[in-house]
Amino acid sequence: MQLYKYSQFNIIADQTEDKVLIYNTYTLNYRWIDNSELDDIQDKQSIDIGDVPVYLANEGFIVPNTLDEIQRLKDDAKAHAEKADFMFLSIFTTLACNYRCVYCFEKDQLCQTEHMTKETADEIIAFIKRRYVDHKFTKPLKIKWFGGEPLLNMDIIRYISNALIINNIEFNARMYTNGRLLTKEIAEELKSLHVTDEVVIPLDGLAPTYAKLKNCTEDDFYKTIQNIKDVEDILKITIHINISEASKSDILQLVKLIRNDYKIKSSFNTISIAPQNTTIINSENNISYDEFHKIKDILLKDAVIPLRRRYGCEARHPDYYVIDTKGDIYICEHLVGQKKYIVGNIKDQSSIINRNGTLWDNSRIIDDCKECPILPLCFGYCTSQRFIDNIDCQKDKRIEATKQQLLKLISNRNQSIKHQNE
After folding, report:
1. Which domain does 62 fall in, by range?
2. The predicted structure's pLDDT at residue 285
3. What is the pLDDT of residue 271?
């Protein structure tokens, strides 16, 4: 007879006198159950399925006691990576930038005037062609245009994109840009060059705060906002609202400006300014985890169950390459400019990154976090921040935020049902 055990990925999100809200972060199922039912299963290793409601097994709150849940995560990650079947490049078109954001992880490492040359671009094109022939990828190449400010070297974006089009290599691209140079004409051209994934544009508070944090003018703020308005029907824009100690009092008014004054429809995410490098970030810019989530909770009225991550961040993708202006290759874009983290150069056409045994090895990451009940959601936090910048993942606060997100989701759904019945 098959016996069951309490899943290590259960969390108790809420509790009343008679009921508990149990949530499994692997199956993403949640349910209110009787306290007595929880007593029958919690932390038990030999549960007779005949003694408990069958839904506890069907929804993953209890699992076969022979199941190694950690190994299952490793197997999932491996299978997902093997099925990815595409290459992903983050290409730094330039190290130059028209801003000098005080919190930027590149501020002290980069912000030079260096642009990628056509010679380096040719090496990238040759590398792509070789990898797609050798590996026989069946899915389109993914490109992220990065910098510095990538639009300061629009010529190289055109050059690489047109070469791929001519060589019949399917691809789609996204871009991280401050948006100041993103005119309607440039947006139309980017769309023709397959920039069909999101274009991410950060905003850092209202005009005075924006100008202070980015070392630019208040006029730059208003021109960027207008650019977003002008191009959002051409490109898929995602606004990153950067929340810091300096900007936190601006955020609600900023959203009102975006939505009500400019009638901008683009989606937005809230991003906390967290230390990327302790020599760059200081307490004036950083914001506490608790404060960030308090503001985020006010802004994002619609809560959703988070997706279960399959292998963590893109840097753990088996064919992800970060390429700087000189063709040097890194595993993670946050490390660009720090020469000790260079793992090869694009001129070496055999440059393949082996992640086994490295900080980005998913098996190692899973083992390191195997006691955490939200591991399937978080998948080890940011590798660079945690293991290179030595930033604490604040597990307990992340678990509490997960509980609060679930409670908000349930409350919203109950309100919706109530309104439908009225």
Report:
1. 1-67
2. 61
3. 81
The list of the chain residues with pLDDT below 50 reads 275-283
Q: How many independent structural domains does the chain possess?
A: 2
Q: Which two tokens stand for residue 415?
A: 């309100």
- Domain boundary at 19, 36, 67, which? 67
183's tokens: 């005119």
Same domain, 262 and 136: yes
Statement: the pTM of the whole predicted model exceeds 0.85? yes
120 and 46 assigned to the same domain: no
Both tokens assigned to 126 = 């040759």
Is residue 308 within 8 A of residue 60, CB to CB? The reply is: no
3 state DSSP class of 80: helix
Cβ neighbours of residue 233 under 8 Å, at least 6 residues apart? none
> What CATH number should be reported for the domain holding residue 251?
3.20.20.70
- In tens, the pLDDT along 32-91 reads 999 999 999 999 999 999 999 999 999 999 999 999 999 999 999 989 888 888 999 999
> If we measure between CA atoms, which residue out of 51, 55, 8 comes closest to residue 29?
55
Given 67, 90, 119, the domain boundary residue is 67
